[in-house]
């Protein structure tokens, strides 16, 4: 294989890795939002992505709404579903420990998947790409314009969220709730409202991911669980609670998968991705960008 | 300023306070002493709203706050420093202090936050040196100072202090107690729960001794310091 040919292939794998990695990163970011407020992992996060794609299909393909309106409506509807999950599932658990709450989110994920199969059936759905499907040539490799949308939106979302949680007082108040709920109440923070906000925000981010990935990868009712697993792996790779960590973890996972699928076999891509995750857990359990000092004060 | 009438409180079915009544006048330091499990901390939690399963009445400045939520009670001007400091351990010192003034932010008064922070730094200069340190990594004494600093950021009228001397070296304890007196002289009313009876009675205008969820004795700090029962049980004489 000559070197130019090798380079083009390599570039192509990197581009697909970054694209799919961006979606994992968005799922990981969604996990982080709820984790940063409650220290629980919401395993229904992948379902928000699935719902984002499929609800957009209704607003855009079936109801023929303009794309921006359909996008906004989808995000709002999924955010409302996030609110309902908090109100109906999370608040109803009588003895809320981190473990019971996580089990609650797994049950919710299964229920949402069942409901989606009932509404949309088992077939995958497509959405038109935002800027058409004409591939862009990049040093011999091809990039779908939608991939640029995915990466661009990820950068914007992560930038805004990092600013929100690191710099704004509401973001810090949300993080304070995960640290010590009694102390948060005693300084006047409404913990219930913050948890509600975290569910709405992470559902909205999930919906955005669903809408932007469907034109590339289609969307069907049972996609959520695998996305949740991959997003969770990205989260652990990058460091629980860190937004830049979620991005690095997601991109790394996407790259490993794409390179293994390209050079070895697509059958091994998940195994390699999870093996890297395990190795990292052995040598750096707080993740690539997690802060080991802060990690000591967290429940997990 | 604060009046508690017939307060009973429960953890599940277990009664932790039984018919406690007391009053607190503005500008006073009132202390509560007693053994472990006497209901002292639960009593403070009933006032600040962290314990909601209770009967009786909590009246603050003439209004009942008995069934208010904890995040509403702080708005009335009551700040509570919990036992064991209970900081936001993974945030730094400045963030902890800023969140202490979360109410100012909610009222659209964010400008006041940095002014209050400077006042807290005047009171606890070490916190200024540690301003970017993660709270969980501070020493015990510094954590206690930060806990008090965070509680006074919202300029409370009444400060509830739970075991501020717990686990601290004597020199640091006397430093913290002189700051408590200083806060009181500046106008903050203080309700202090403390195992170190000598220290607590020494700075209090009035004190109560709790035993098994009830008030067993009451009197001025000096009266209780001279009481034989108190001497035997709490002062080690």
Give average pLDDT of chain A, whole number: 89
What profile does the largest beta sheet of chain B have? Answer: 6 strands, mixed
Query: Could you say what the CATH architecture of the domain at 1-77 and 160-169 and 193-237 in chain B is?
Result: 3-Layer(aba) Sandwich
The level of helicity of chain B is 25-40%
CATH fold type of the domain at 1-77 and 160-169 and 193-237 in chain B: Rossmann fold
- Judged by helices, strands and strand pairing, the structural class of chain A is mainly alpha
User: What is the radius of gyration of chain A?
Assistant: 19 Å
Q: Specify the CATH class of chain A.
A: Mainly Alpha
Overall 3D shape of chain B: globular
Number of separate structural domains of chain A: 1
Order of helices and strands of chain B: EEEHEEHEHHHHHEHEHEEHH
In angstroms, what separates the terminal alpha carbons of chain B?
35 Å
- SSE string of chain A, helix = H, strand = E? HHHHEEHHHHHHHH
Low-confidence stretches of chain A: none
Mean pLDDT of chain B: 89
Characterization of this structure:
- The complex is a heterodimer of chains A (300) and B (237).
- Chain A is 74% helix and 2% strand.
- With 300 residues, chain A is mainly alpha-helical.
- Chain A has a two-stranded antiparallel sheet with strand order 1-2.
- In chain A, helix 1 crosses helix 6 and helix 1 packs antiparallel against helix 10.
- The longest helix of chain A is centred in the N-terminal third of the chain and has 36 residues.
- Chain A starts with a helix and ends in a 5-residue tail after the last helix.
- Chain B is of the alpha/beta class and 237 residues long.
- In chain B, strands 6-7-8-3-9-10 form a six-stranded mixed β-sheet, sandwiched between helices.
- The two termini of chain B are 35 Å apart.
- The model of chain B has no long low-confidence stretch (mean pLDDT 89).
- The chains are: A mainly alpha (300), B alpha/beta (237).
- At the A-B interface, helix 6 and helix 7 of A face helix 3 and helix 4 of B.
């Amino acid at each position: 294989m000559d070197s130019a040919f090798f380079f083009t292939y390599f570039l192509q794998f990197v581009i697909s890795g970054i694209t799919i990695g961006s979606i994992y990163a968005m799922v990981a970011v969604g996990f982080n939002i709820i984790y940063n407020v409650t220290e629980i992992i919401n395993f229904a996060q992948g379902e928000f992505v699935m719902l984002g794609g499929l609800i957009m299909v209704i607003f855009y393909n079936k109801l023929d709404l303009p794309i921006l309106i359909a996008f906004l409506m989808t995000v709002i509807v999924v955010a409302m579903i996030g609110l309902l999950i908090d109100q109906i599932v999370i608040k109803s658990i009588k003895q809320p420990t981190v473990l019971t709450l996580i089990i609650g989110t797994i049950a919710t994920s299964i229920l949402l998947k069942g409901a989606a199969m009932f509404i949309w059936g088992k077939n995958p759905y497509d959405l038109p790409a935002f800027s058409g499907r004409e591939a862009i040539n990049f040093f011999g490799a091809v990039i779908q314009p939608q991939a640029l949308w995915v990466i661009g939106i990820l950068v914007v979302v992560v930038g805004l969220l990092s600013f929100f949680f690191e710099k704004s007082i509401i973001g810090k108040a949300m993080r304070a709730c995960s640290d010590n709920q009694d102390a948060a109440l005693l300084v006047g923070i409404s913990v219930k409202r913050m948890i509600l906000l975290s569910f709405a925000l992470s559902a909205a981010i999930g919906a955005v991911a669903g809408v932007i990935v469907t034109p590339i990868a289609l969307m069907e009712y049972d996609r959520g669980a695998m996305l949740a697993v991959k997003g969770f792996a990205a989260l652990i790779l990058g460091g629980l609670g860190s937004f830049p960590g979620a991005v690095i973890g997601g991109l790394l996972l996407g790259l490993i998968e794409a390179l293994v699928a390209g050079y070895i076999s697509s059958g091994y891509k998940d195994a390699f991705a999870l093996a890297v995750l395990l190795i990292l857990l052995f040598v750096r359990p707080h993740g690539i960008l997690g802060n080991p000092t802060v990690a000591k004060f967290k429940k997990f | 300023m604060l009046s508690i009438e017939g307060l009973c409180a429960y953890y599940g079915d277990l009664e932790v306070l039984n018919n406690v009544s007391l009053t607190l006048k503005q500008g006073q330091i009132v202390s509560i002493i007693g053994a472990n499990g006497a209901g002292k901390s639960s009593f403070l939690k009933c006032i600040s709203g962290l314990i909601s399963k209770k009967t009786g009445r909590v009246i603050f400045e003439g209004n009942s706050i008995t069934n208010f939520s904890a995040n509403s009670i702080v708005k009335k001007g009551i700040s509570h420093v919990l036992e064991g400091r209970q900081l936001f351990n993974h945030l730094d010192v400045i963030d902890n202090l800023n969140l202490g003034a979360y109410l100012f932010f909610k009222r659209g008064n964010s400008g006041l936050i940095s002014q209050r922070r400077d006042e807290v730094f005047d009171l606890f200069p070490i916190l200024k040196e540690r301003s970017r340190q993660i709270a969980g990594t501070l020493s015990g004494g510094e954590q206690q100072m930060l806990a008090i600093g965070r509680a006074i950021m919202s300029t409370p009228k009444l400060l509830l202090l739970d075991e501020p001397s717990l686990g601290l070296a004597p020199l640091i304890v006397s430093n913290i107690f002189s700051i408590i007196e200083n806060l009181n002289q500046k106008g903050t009313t203080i309700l202090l729960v403390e195992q170190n009876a000598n220290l607590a009675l020494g700075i209090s205008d009035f004190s109560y001794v709790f035993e098994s969820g009830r008030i067993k004795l009451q009197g001025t700090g000096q009266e209780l310091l001279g009481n034989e029962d108190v001497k035997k049980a709490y002062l080690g004489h």
